[in-house]
Amino acid sequence: MTPFDNAQGRPRDFPVIFDFSVPGRVGSSYPNPDVPDTPLEQLIPASQLRKEPAALPEVSELDVVRHYTRLSHRNFSIDEGFYPLGSCTMKYNPKIHEDAARLAGFARLHPYAPAEGAQGALRLICELEELLAEISGMDRVTFQPAAGAHGELTGLLMIRAYFETRGERRTKVIVPDSAHGTNPATAAMVGYQVVTVKSDARGNMDVRALREAMDGSVAAIMLTNPNTLGLFEEPILDVEEIVHRAGGQLYLDGANFNAVLGVTRPGDQGFDVMHMNLHKTFTTPHGGGGPGAGAVGVKAHLAPFLPVPVIERDGERFRLDDQRPQSIGKIRAFYGNFGNLVRAYAYIRSMGADGLRQVAETAVLNANYLLARLRSRFDLPYDRLCKHEFVLSGARQKRQHGVATRDMAKRILDYGFHAPTIYFPLIVEEAIMIEPTETESKRTLDEFADAMLAIAREAQDDPEVVKTAPHSTPVKRLDEVRAARQPDLRWKPR
Amino acid sequence: MYPKDLRYSSEHEWVRVEGGRVRVGITRFAADRLTDVVFVELPAAGAKVTFMQPFGVVESVKAVSDLYAPLSGTVVEVNPALVDSPEVVNSDPYGKGWMIVVQPDDLRELERLMPVDQYVVAIGEAAP
To answer: For the Aromatic amino acid beta-eliminating lyase/threonine aldolase domain, which residue ranges apply (chain A) (predicted)?
Structure first.
């Protein structure tokens, strides 16, 4: 079948690879073997053989290449346009990192290569650990977690193991109401009861509420700093004192680490564990599902619980250490997403200490510039100097013109930008969360601000054009409600 | 929008007294804020619920939120219609969109909930 229905090239449908299938078509053909053929039944037990052949698509290599290349054209990426998705740090990923990750000595290294044959890779991991420990103020770092939420799980498992070793039974984890949804989910998964503490009028964690919630049954508090409102938690030192005095641990969700690189260190603020999203702060690829890398840093008292193996340096030699009896065990095959560690290492080395500080300063400057340009036309529930991102509210547009934040987010696609994060954090009505990152020019920021202001005007003068957006994308407004209520997740033969 | 014969919690649940039992759902305000509800997770009949502790989860296309028990007691009935038609939470929050019926431990706990005039002020839909 052909995927386009007319000369304008408008997609007729969204064919899946199976729709291109023709019986007998193959991607490659091999010469007949010059050794005797062994029947499958002799190689594999009958109980493990299929009764019927799998319904795989029968397509040529070119069919496959064209289909997926076409799909990729419908994607939106940071290489194509501005991507101000709040809390996700969609910064540009420099291409030189791809060169580094593709060096044959890294890319073609066999995962089962013995340590003696992988000294370069182990040295890179070890040096990256030392660099991130210095940047974060932590003592040790593991790179096994595959993403941020996986890092949270690893961190809380270590905290649980720490209390078990001490014979302490603690049952609760505190999270603020502005937290990423993964925080309470992680705590629940590790078996803790989640206690939510509200934010105060300035957008900080409410210290009085924390004091009331904190006692000897609380294992940890999970905090994001700057928090998801893009605001630095001003009472962080009070929080540290309250939690540590009651014997609890401080976990930092490092999703927003980009805002404070080289300026302040979570370890110095008293955090015991933190995860760092290498795919946010340290420019490893992001979006499109990863793979990510959620490095986890810990203070020395938690180091015995790190996942195995840990890489140890003996002078100029590097070895994998599996002999750690208190370790929480293995949480990922091999050593995490190694290619991304190479990219993060290349980034840190090319930026240097001063460069990393400049990253944070420019990210904060860009966010405050955008905020200053937008604040007159949108509500701003927490009016403070922001860090790397800020949260507006579309409540005014909804109340006055019936235009919801979702409508404005759809409309921004028509202007050629990715939409900001919307309806998060949950404590802001009709939330619009914007994170420009440091890699955008003033010109791009201005173009985006102009578009947002134009949409605010449209909401007032021509609300229908916003409510029915997007108008220029391959598909119009998707039926999210039907997709959630009647999910159709799997291709079935007709 | 907010029936006068109900009591309301700060977490936007409503309570209707029916004899010695109470029926529980979420308010129009909560349903509107959530937008289209796509999934409701409720406890089984016989489960214990505790005042202002989560008893279930409501999920919309926008957010996943806990449901908080407005009274302590035992669940005696669960709305079976919400499994296939969660949208009634939006279309009829005080009627077909009810969630659970609770046998309260102590009906006097109702005093800790708000009457309608206080609730509409709390959500900013009436002057204090």
So the answer is: 125-288
